[in-house]
Structures are given as C-alpha cells and as structure tokens.
Design a protein that fits this description.
ion transport; V-type ATP synthase subunit C fold; 3 domains; transport; proton-transporting ATPase activity, rotational mechanism; mainly alpha; V/A-type H+-transporting ATPase subunit C; Topoisomerase I, Chain A, domain 4; single chain; 333 residues
Length: 333
C-alpha cells in the first residue's frame, strides 16, 4: 500500500470524524424520557436522513441499518484500496452465508436476515449456491460453503453451521489483514481472536461443554497460544486474570474479567473487548498518510451504532439511565 494514495481519503475522514456523536449527545439520549426523544436528538445529526423514514419506536433498527449502509457506501467511494473497508465488511459476508445455508438446511425463508453490506457481490454467491455451481465463487467462500454442507450431511446439527463459518471467517479475516502488512490491522485481528477465545472458554464452561468441544471452537492466529487457553479451561476467573494479564490485551481483559466476576455477565467482557478495540484505533487520529484512519473511522462508526442500539433497546425496555450507562461502550471521539 502506498500511503500517499490516502491523502484525500484521510482529509475526508477527518471531516467525518467531527460528525461522530459526542459524549454530550450520548448522555442526552441516555437521559431521554423515551425513544421518541432520542429520535429528535438524532435528527440534529447526520442520522437525520435515516430518522426521517421512521414513524414507530419499534423500527429503530431501520435507522441504524440505513446509517450503516450509508457509511460503508461512502467509505468505498473515497477509498482507493477496498481491502481497508473489506476488513470490516467481511463479517457481513459470513453472516449472509449462515443465513443462506440455514435457509436450505432448515427449509425456512430467512430473507429478512440478510444484510446488504459485504466485501463481495453476495448475489453471485447465492445464485451459485442455489444452482449448485460454486465454480465462480471466491475460493475462501466456496471452501467455507463446501465444508459446512459436508459437515451437515454427516452430523445433521444446524448449530455447527455457526461454528464452522465463524472459523472460516476468522481465518479469512486474518489472511486479509496479514496481506496488507499494516500493523494496526494485524493487531486488531489478533487481539480480537484472543478476546473471542477467552470469552468462548468461559461461555462453554458455563454451558457444561468439555475441552474437546472448546478445542474445536478456538481460533488460531491470536497472540495467546491455543494450548495455553485450553489449559485455562479449568481455571477460576482469578487464575485466568493471572495467566493472561501480561499479554497485549491484558489491560482490557483484566477489566472485563473483573467485571464478569462481579456480575457473571459475559456481556460485560464483551463491553471491555469493544472498548479495548476502540482504544487501539485512537492513534489513527494522528496518522496523516495511510489507510489506518479510514479503518479506524469504520470501527468508530460501528461502535457508535452499537451504542445507539443499546440505548434504544434499554429505552424500549424502560431501563434506568444508570443501567443503560453501565452497558454503553467508550467513544472514539
């Protein structure tokens, strides 16, 4: 990647960063009386076009979906090398693969679950899948589809669809990040793998699964060796903190595990994972030449949308501002 190719894109991104929701606006929405008041606040921001088409409180997801699509479209327009956007968009391809396979396996119409964001033309994949001809499908997606179909034929277990496609997603994502040679992208993926692996360890232990099942679920290519995570399967939370505190993700993981020990909620660990992944992107604010600000803006925007979803769901469920504030993520701004 030639860093000079990103001068104009970075300049545009700096303008977009200033439009990210401030802490003041987020606090205003947390304290709002109802979701209608939140819509009014959003109407004063770049979400105004999305809000205009929504009449019912329960349709808040339409606002978030509209904004997400708008942002991805814009970032593709200003970015020369699409892999910078694809790194964040790839998860939607694999989400759509899950929907596609489940539609066939469960014989259900799940078309409302598709997300029209991704790194590739999903219609091409869907058409090939329906026609039984994956020859022209990108190799990574073709291999994932073939693997999950073969597994279902043997095991007849729809729950394994997610496990297998998640593994192929992380493998594909790591390959893409490594190919860029950009340290931030590689660190982001490796750190995310470590967090997910540790969260999976705790979740599966709570569910009463055994170590063989964990071994199948754990992802390679993190900073923490899979064998070390397997060894932690019988650890208490205190011992996990001691075991992992000196790794790259140690600061965020320590907060997440301490919070989980108090609340017994894995969502708390997820919150501190999200905060950590935002933090490692913040130095991009000072990068003037290169792809990092574009990637980091997308990370920030997705975190902002997740925060809005948490606030809106909390408001619909009549949670207190204090309970909502405990759930929201840190901001990039």
């Amino acid at each position: 990647m030639d860093r000079m190719d990103y001068i104009q894109a970075v300049t545009r991104t700096r303008v977009l960063e200033k439009k990210l929701l401030s802490k003041g606006r987020i606090d205003r929405m947390i304290e709002a009386r109802d979701i209608g008041e939140i819509f009014k606040t959003l109407n004063e921001t770049e979400y105004s076009s999305a809000v205009a088409g929504v009449s019912r409180d329960e349709d808040y997801e339409n606002i978030l979906s509209y904004e997400l699509k708008r942002v991805y479209k814009l970032m593709r327009e200003i970015t020369k090398d699409q892999v910078v956007v694809d790194l964040m968009a790839l998860k939607y391809d694999y989400h759509n693969l899950k929907v596609l396979v489940k539609e066939r396996m469960l014989n259900k119409d799940l078309s409302k679950l598709y997300i029209s964001i991704g790194s590739t033309d999903f219609k091409k994949i869907k058409d090939g899948f329906i026609e039984g001809n994956l020859r022209d499908v990108q190799p990574e997606f073709r291999e994932a589809i073939e693997a999950v179909l073969k597994d279902f034929e043997i095991n007849k277990d729809p729950q394994r669809i997610d496990i297998i496609l998640d593994r192929f997603y992380i493998q594909h994502l790591y390959k893409m990040a490594e190919a860029t040679g950009i340290k931030l992208f590689i660190d982001y993926v490796k750190d995310m793998i470590d967090f997910i692996n540790i969260k999976s360890t705790i979740r599966l232990k709570k569910q009463g699964k055994d170590m063989n099942f964990l071994e199948e679920v754990l992802f390679p290519n993190g900073n923490i060796d899979k064998d070390l995570i397997l060894m932690s399967f019988s650890d208490s939370i205190e011992n996990m903190i001691t075991r992992f505190k000196n790794y790259r993700i140690g600061s965020g993981l320590l907060k997440g595990l301490e919070s989980y020990r108090v609340t017994n909620r894995l969502s708390d660990l997820e919150k501190f994972m999200d905060n950590y992944l935002i933090d490692i992107n913040k130095p991009s604010k000072y990068v003037n030449f290169g792809p990092e600000p574009i990637f980091s803006y997308l990370v920030a925007k997705e975190a902002e949308i997740k925060t809005l979803r948490i606030i809106m769901v909390s408001k619909l469920n009549k949670l207190s501002p204090e309970a909502t504030r405990e759930r929201v993520r840190d901001l990039y701004v």
